[in-house]
Design goal:
seven-stranded mixed sheet; two-stranded parallel ribbon; single chain; 8 helices; 16% strand; 250 residues
Length: 250
C-alpha cells in the first residue's frame, strides 16, 4: 500500500481529455497524495480511463466512485467527503480535473493545515489581486464581484468565497453536518466555507493562479451563479437563526 494521509477528490463529467493527465500530475509530486475520482456517468468514457489506470499502475492510490447521472457538484463532493472519512484520511482536498487548479499548489495547501495549524486552506484567486488567466473578462468580473457580494451580505471575510480548490482537516468535515448542506452547484462552495467559519474553524487563503481550461468543455452556467447569488441571502438568515455544531475539543 502506498501510504498517504491525504486524498484529492476530483469530480468529473466528460473529462476524457484531462483525467489521465491530472492524475499523473498529482502522482508525479514529491509528496504523496491519493486521488478519488467521483464520476457522474460520463458518456465519453472518463471512468473507463480511471479504471485502466487503477488496474495497470495505481491500484493502491487511485480510487473511483461511479454515480448514475449528473447529480451536481455539491453532492459529488459530499459523496467524496464521506468516502474519505470512512477511509481515515486526515487531509481532504477539492480539485478540478481541467488544470484550472495547479497540482503543484497541493503541498502549499497541505502545509497551511498540517504545519501552520489552519483547519481549512483555500486556494484563493483574489487574496493578492486578481490571479486569473485566460478567462473572458465578463466571467472574471462575475466571479470577482460574486465574492465581493458574499462578503458584503454575510460579513464573511474570505476574499474568494466561490473557490473550489481547498484542503480540509478531517475534523472540519466530521463536524459540519454534511447531509444538511443544501446547495448543489457553486453555491455549495460558499455554503461549506461559511459553515466552517460560523463553527469557528481557522481559515487561511493561500494565493494561487487560476488558469482557464485548455481542453474539454466548461460546466459553468448562469443557473450555477443564480443559485449562488440568491442562496447567499439564505445563508445570511441561517447565520442569524441556525444553531451550528460546536467546535470539536481537539
Amino acid at each position: 500500500m502506498n501510504a498517504s494521509d491525504s486524498i484529492v477528490i476530483i469530480p468529473t463529467f466528460n473529462e476524457k481529455e484531462n483525467i489521465e493527465k491530472i492524475i499523473r500530475a498529482v502522482f508525479g509530486l514529491e509528496q504523496s497524495f491519493h486521488v478519488l475520482v467521483i464520476d457522474d456517468g460520463s458518456p465519453d468514457g472518463t471512468a473507463d480511463i480511471v479504471k485502466r489506470l487503477m488496474a495497470e499502475e495505481f491500484a493502491d492510490r487511485l480510487f473511483l466512485v461511479e454515480r448514475s447521472g449528473k447529480l451536481g457538484l455539491g453532492t459529488a463532493y459530499i459523496t467524496g467527503f464521506k468516502w474519505a472519512l470512512e477511509h481515515d484520511y486526515d487531509y481532504i482536498f477539492e480539485m478540478d480535473a481541467d488544470f484550472s487548479h495547479d497540482p503543484n499548489d497541493l503541498p502549499r495547501l497541505y502545509a497551511a493545515c498540517a504545519e501552520e495549524g489552519y483547519d481549512l486552506a483555500i486556494g484563493s484567486r483574489y487574496i493578492s489581486g486578481v490571479n486569473v488567466v485566460n478567462w473572458p473578462i465578463g466571467r472574471v468580473l462575475m466571479s470577482y464581484f460574486a465574492s465581493k457580494y458574499v462578503r458584503l451580505v454575510t460579513g464573511f471575510k474570505v476574499h474568494d468565497t466561490t473557490a473550489g480548490f481547498k484542503c480540509y482537516k478531517r475534523r472540519v468535515l466530521e463536524t459540519i453536518e454534511l447531509d444538511k448542506i443544501r446547495f448543489k452547484g457553486y453555491g455549495f462552495q460558499i455554503e461549506m466555507k461559511y459553515t466552517a467559519y460560523k463553527i469557528g474553524f481557522k481559515i487561511k487563503e493561500v494565493p494561487v493562479i487560476f488558469v482557464n481550461r485548455r481542453e474539454g468543455v466548461s460546466k459553468m452556467s448562469g443557473g450555477i451563479f443564480g443559485e449562488a447569488f440568491f442562496g447567499v441571502m439564505r445563508l445570511r438568515w441561517d447565520g442569524w437563526t441556525r444553531k451550528y455544531p460546536p467546535m470539536p475539543s481537539n
